[in-house]
Amino acid sequence: MADRTPLMAGNWKMNQDHHQATHLVQKLAWSLKDAKHDFSAVEVAVLPPFTDLRSVQTLVDADKLDIRYGAQDVSAHESGAYTGEISPVMLAKLGVTYVAVGHSERREYHHEDEAIVNAKIKSAFAHGIVPILCVGEGLDVRKAGEQVPHTLAQVDGALEGLPAEQAAQIVIAYEPVWAIGTGEVATPEDAQEVCGAIRARLGELYDAPLADGVRVLYGGSVKSGNVAAIMAQPDVDGALVGGASLDAEEFAKIARFT
Ligand code: PEP
């Protein structure tokens, strides 16, 4: 099995202004330090709102923090008449490492379909930003037992035409919609079932070594109390954390995960 560095990414959603963002990142850095744990084998990232990115960049650079940061969305276009959108060129200038693409809230409230998600992934890669592709089924699909085919269809659509060099770098977050923000976390077995299927699909679409190297995260009501069991699954390489990432101490405990 490839050596996959776990990634713990905090999706702040639409929370924290740029002053609060600076405070939260500082507190996270202190909490990681306080934990007296060796975090060198884990990547910790935050995904603040666009308006916070410049402040976060300044702080991370000035204090040389070992914290990555990213955005929650990206335009499929580089520039032009796209009111309200943020270009990957602009994000790259702000030093972002990651961008979430196809989060269920974007799919639901902004009607993002597979074609848009696919275009955004290509747009991010074109500017050296690693997409965190979010996929996962709603409750009706889960109740029908269709979570694997549903999620794999999202993966197929999102990766359409993506060259292997880029697919090898992508991060995929399996986030069952019924678990996001509900406090109802998937069982470790449920997480493993779909994360394992995603990895197997990468093997079919590309090849086994590529699939073995891609990080597949779980997201949905992850907390310090449930993260260890989920991280113990062979195909789970980290977590995309929403609500709990707004509490620096809790997020640091999640990043520790053992
Ligand atoms: C998310 O927004 O991606 C998420 C997983 O949220 P939460 O952890 O709050 O369920």
TrEMBL record:
Active site (catalytic residues): H103, E175
Pathway per the UniProt entry: Carbohydrate degradation; glycolysis; D-glyceraldehyde 3-phosphate from glycerone phosphate: step 1/1; Carbohydrate biosynthesis; gluconeogenesis
Classification via CDD domains: TIM
Pfam families hit by this protein: TIM
InterPro entries: Aldolase_TIM, TIM_sf, TrioseP_Isoase_bac/euk, Triosephosphate_isomerase, Triosephosphate_isomerase_AS
Example of a GO biological process term: glycolytic process
Catalyses which reaction(s): D-glyceraldehyde 3-phosphate = dihydroxyacetone phosphate
Keywords: Cytoplasm, Gluconeogenesis, Glycolysis, Isomerase
Subcellular location, principal: cytoplasm
PROSITE patterns: TIM_1, TIM_2
Complex formation: Homodimer.
Function text: Involved in the gluconeogenesis. Catalyzes stereospecifically the conversion of dihydroxyacetone phosphate (DHAP) to D-glyceraldehyde-3-phosphate (G3P).
Name of the protein in its database record: Triosephosphate isomerase
UniProt organism field: Sediminihabitans luteus
Gene: tpiA
